[in-house]
């Protein structure tokens, strides 16, 4: 178990370092935000319970961790991500960060190539999964379909 | 003479040997006392007349007397100042004595001696040959009186024998005696009538020793007297006493007769008439026995002087004689009186009513279910019976229901339980009982709260933060060994239901393995997976959805 924790921690650290290093040039004006890539959402969704029209959005992850804290979860693995369109944030949702070492446990499908994102329907089209791969660190955003 | 002393000695021995037995108190009777005085010889009696009673054992009396009487021969007036004493022996006898310290005799006939009728000599003082002999030491009398019957011993009368000797301490030279020893033996009968009047009578013989010059006559002397009231401090007395001589004359021995100072000669034969004296007196006596009294005696047989041409102006002194006495005589034993009837005994108290009460106590009187209370029964029994006890109760169990003190284990049902104890006396099966109520309370529910353990997305591994939470659970489980918990595995709604059910199971088992690896027995742990079925938070938003990725520990059973 500790092994997993250590692995998780080291992966998270690596992921953060990767995010930090890879996103230097793509960072927004706000410090700590990392652009993950663009994704097209074919149907309207409800990130964070709010409507988000179908369309293509730039996804960027922030340093803001989800609240409240959930003891046992890795705080930095649950962070807010923003759906930006036309330079405006159209929606926000919490993204789950999965290091490369754990992605095989989490998702059986082939991950998107590094630097790209894709959206896919899950569970009888109940959810959109927006999956971004940035330098081996995977960002999963699950959006309820409207 | 020897025979008379032999009789006296025999009587003395008889009295003294049997005295102890006779001195015993009469059964059922109560001893009493009454006052008594002495006679002129010192023994117990009226004045001249003795009484049949004697002093108590070791009691003593003492008295002083002035005695005066007249005799016909020479119209002599005889006076004595006598000191007397007496001592009681075992309540059956007394010894006594009288010393006539001063004897005075006045002879009035002139010439001193003359004819045989009044000019002769006296039988008791034959040597008086002067008109006034002056103050001379007189004779001494010693005697013993033996009490044969006594009213103190419930005899109807008191009877005594008195023996007495006259020691010739008065000499013929100073004319105050004969110089010879006399003896006397008297029988005395007396009675206290109705506790008011003492009546006494005596009679006896006087045996006189004859001096060289005279043949003296023995005599029968007698006396009766009455004194009343005997139990008053002031008593009055009347006596009649006298003496009859065995010879009617005193005869001079030899050719030479007694010559008086005036040269007259005593006749060869002097008439000796009997004498009789009546006396009246009064005595005051204290309760302790001190007394003083005076009396006047009248000589019934004395003659008037005028009849013999003797100065009649002194005739009063010829017929009367003054008597004075003072002394101490302690009370003597009186007739016993029946003991007062014993006080009527109080009716026997009814047999004590048998009372039996039992008091029951509990400690504590409020217990939790299944807990133990001590109950105690205390019996109060009026007859000291060996009480047996029996405890009963509708619930719970007694350790020793037959003991006064026992432990009682409360049932597992809360409520008030009334315990009854009954004490029984085996002697008469009397019983008493008491109850005590014990409040049985439910055991307070102990609340155990375990924090949920959260997992990362689609993971079941335990982070350090998760292990810290579980460490607290381990501590709680160790402190409560009977605590059993169920571990529930939960997931969010992402993924298929089947997948989530398996993920929840892995999460639950992950927690279970941690607890077991920290010493919590597997028998205390169960696990279950609810998968995504029991979301605690909103699954439509990730901010809350993530909170459904958890394992929860719930208490399964509390003993």
Quick tags:
heterodimer; A: 146 residues; alpha+beta; eight-stranded antiparallel beta sheet; 2 helices; 8 strands; B: 559 residues; mainly beta; Porin; Immunoglobulin-like; 60s Ribosomal Protein L30, Chain: A; twelve-stranded antiparallel β-barrel; four-stranded antiparallel beta sheet; 31 strands; 43% strand; rod-shaped
Structural commentary:
The complex is a heterodimer of chains A (146) and B (559). With 146 residues, chain A is an alpha+beta fold. In chain A, 19% of the residues lie in helices and 44% in strands. Chain A has 2 helices and 8 strands. In chain A, strands 1, 2, 3, 4, 5, 6, 7 and 8 form an 8-stranded antiparallel beta sheet that branches. The longest helix of chain A has 21 residues. Chain B contains 5 helices and 31 strands. In chain B, the strands form 7 sheets. A 12-stranded antiparallel barrel of chain B has the order 4-5-6-7-8-9-10-12-13-16-17-18. The longest helix of chain B has 21 residues. Chain B is rod-shaped. At the A-B interface, helix 1, strand 5, helix 2 and strand 8 of A face strand 28, helix 3, helix 4 and helix 5 of B.
SSE blueprint:
The complex is a heterodimer of chains A (146) and B (559).
Chain A: H1 2-22, E1 34-41, E2 45-46, E3 55-65, E4 78-85, E5 88-98, H2 100-106, E6 116-122, E7 127-134, E8 137-145
Antiparallel strand pairs in A: 1-3, 2-8, 3-4, 4-5, 5-8, 6-7, 7-8
Chain B: H1 2-22, E1 29-34, E2 37-38, E3 44-45, E4 60-71, E5 76-89, E6 93-106, E7 140-149, E8 158-167, E9 182-193, E10 197-207, E11 214-215, E12 219-228, E13 234-245, E14 249-252, E15 269-271, E16 275-285, E17 290-299, H2 315-319, E18 320-328, E19 332-338, E20 356-363, E21 366-368, E22 372-381, E23 388-392, E24 397-398, E25 405-409, E26 415-424, E27 431-441, E28 453-454, H3 464-479, E29 484-490, H4 497-517, E30 525-531, H5 542-545, E31 550-557
